[in-house]
Amino acid sequence: MSAQELRCNPLRVGLIGAGGIARKVHSPGFMAQSNVELVAVADPEAGRAESLARDAEISVALTDFRDLVSRDDIDAVSIATPPVAHAETTIAALEAGKHVFCEKPMAMNAREATAMADAANRAQRILAIDFQSRFEWETQQAREFVSRGLLGSPHFAKSSYLRRGGVPTWGTFTSKAMNGGGALIDIGVHALDRALYVLGHPTPTSVWGATGQPFGRRGQVTNRWGPWNTEAHDVDDYAFAAIRFEDDLILLLECSWVLRMEQASVEQLQISATESGLELKPLRIFHDHNGYHSTETFEAPDSQRPSHELSIADFVHCVQTGDEPTVPAAHGVLISKIVDAIYKSTAERSEIPIT
């Protein structure tokens, strides 16, 4: 279908993956768009595609994603599989001429992510990654403050996503073979992406990182979702990193599924710049005024669309207009490179250059 036809007709979407993220996020997110039609869903697990198709009123249920991407009545594909399948399904969809909306993390590693971005360039199709935290009101407002130069030049930032006891007990999150990593690749990438987006994607030069697994194999910790399979748990519980950028900017990244702390959960971004400082959740600006330290707090609107829904709306808009998505493939590749460097730094106990 041509760009003009996509603007004038509903976008016909196929879902690959019918698990929790497809059921709770992707299918309702696309159904919330007025100009989208969900045509088909594919999942290799017996009965799962049929169940989602019945609940979401999707007419076609398949077990092989190849049958889905080969259909002529599909314009775009939404990837909601475990990360291990992101590269294969995304590249197949792009090569079949479909636009792709891929769940985070983009891939298991930077090599796969680069192959996905290259496939999108060859096919001249849009590939967007679902880093939905970019679409939160506070994140968007913070990005505007930085891009307008209201803070001056940033020189230090810290981005955190920490849980007191939040190990996922469903899906493939605790399997390195299926997920590529643990807390870092699950929630750490959100903290990293939020920081890079707000800062305007400065160029990283090197990474020092450390990961650990103090609780994953032994359990014995209060977990909001109950006990997990400690024998099958082979991923990181936490990751901490220092990322250097050009112009001497430094970003500290911290993430953990399990951390001995007071709060149940912490999601925060702090930035110090030459003229002012910024902090998210709540959004506050720190600066000097008439010889005093001053704090300015900004309240979010009472009503906001869910960030996942806004992320999907952005993808749909870009497919129909040809605009670049808010989360282009290149940004997902950069996240993957930094994640790879953190794991490599942990293994080698050294600072790793980013190339």
Characterization of this structure:
There is one protein chain. The protein is α/β, with parallel strands linked by helices and 355 residues long. Helix content is 34%, strand content 26%. It contains eleven helices and 15 strands. It has helices at residues 3-8, 20-31, 48-56, 65-69, 86-95, 110-123, 137-147, 176-179, 183-198, 307-321, 329-348; strands at residues 11-16, 36-42, 60-62, 76-79, 99-103, 127-130, 154-163, 204-212, 238-245, 250-256, 265-273, 276-279, 283-289, 292-298, 352-353. The strands form two sheets. A nine-stranded mixed beta sheet has the order 14-13-12-11-7-10-9-8-15. Strand 12 and strand 13 form a beta hairpin. Helix 2 (20-31) crosses helix 10 (307-321), helix 5 packs parallel to helix 6 (110-123) and helix 6 (110-123) packs antiparallel against helix 11 (329-348). It is globular, with a radius of gyration of 21 Å. The two termini are 38 Å apart. The model has no long low-confidence stretch (mean pLDDT 96).
